[in-house]
Amino acid sequence: MHVRISSIGLLIPRPASQDTALTASIRSIDPASLEALPASAGVYRFLDARGTPLYIGKSVNIRARVQAHLRTPQERALLRATRRVDFIRTAGEIGALLLESQLIKKWQPPYNVLLKSAAPAYALYLPKGSLQPHVVDYEDAGRDRVHGLFASRRTAEAGWRAQIKRHGLCPSLLGIEKTTLGRACFAHQLGHCRGACVGLETPLAHRRRVLKALRQLDQYAWPYEGPIGVVENDGRLHQVHVVDRWAYLGSLSEDLPVLKLPNRTRLDVDTFKILSAPLAAGLLTRVDLQISRSEREIRSSTFAPHEDAA
């Protein structure tokens, strides 16, 4: 008898037709392609009869993850359309995350929901002569007077408010809090403002600290002089993932010792989300890359570990 276990531990009969229908859906998939799947990290693709990706996923154990798909009744339509499953090995989870995001944007698989479009990035723009930064689209704003990098308008606003508090800036002068002329702002009453609103700090000194607070956010935009490499090694595969301005450009390995760089890279927020926090925390091994300017390429023999690398 086919059974399932309920949330309270009861054995409940499962209609045999459900298992039969799921098994029938899997029969169209080339068994050799399933047998070849490794129990290691990487990206896998469900392909239709023309070899076009229907779904792209990632896992630290490709074989186990694909087998989970094959046992899921809700994915019957995907399984029915699939003819084979292929994979690309990576040296770890970071490489799998980066490659999955890149391939989904490239192929736009119909059964993928997330990562299909490039999410917008946001920054703080300070108009000339103003003390009130505006949240703007990072790519559309240009680079003049733009500070920081944020995944949403909300995080941009929250990031700026955190800087205001951290630096003891005046919310009233920054247009965040309304106060009566000559009266201290509420932040000053709480000890979070140094008193520019009541003349305890000159406008010039306050403006200088505003600019300093904004410049500190620039480290999130791209804190490196040029492209960097992120190293992953699982004992069998050694890769250096090349990233420039939070755009994943590809991975160097024994199989791909040379990587051609594009003339222009466009920031990718998903890459930023994947790498920014672990890089800042020193959890990833970073290498500095030496670029052949004439050929715009990076070779696996031209990188050296960064002095802070683990």
From TrEMBL:
Q: Which InterPro entries does its entry note? A: GIY-YIG_endonuc, GIY-YIG_endonuc_sf, GIY-YIG_UvrC_Cho, UvrABC_protein_C
Q: Start and end of every GIY-YIG domain?
A: 39-113
Record-level GO cellular component terms: excinuclease repair complex
**Which BP terms from GO are recorded?**
nucleotide-excision repair; SOS response
Q: Which UniProt keywords apply?
A: DNA damage, DNA excision, DNA repair, Excision nuclease, Hydrolase, SOS response
| GO molecular function annotation | hydrolase activity; nuclease activity
Q: Which domain of life is it from?
A: Bacteria
Keyword Membrane appears in the UniProt entry: no
Protein name in the entry: Excinuclease cho
Native source species: Noviherbaspirillum humi
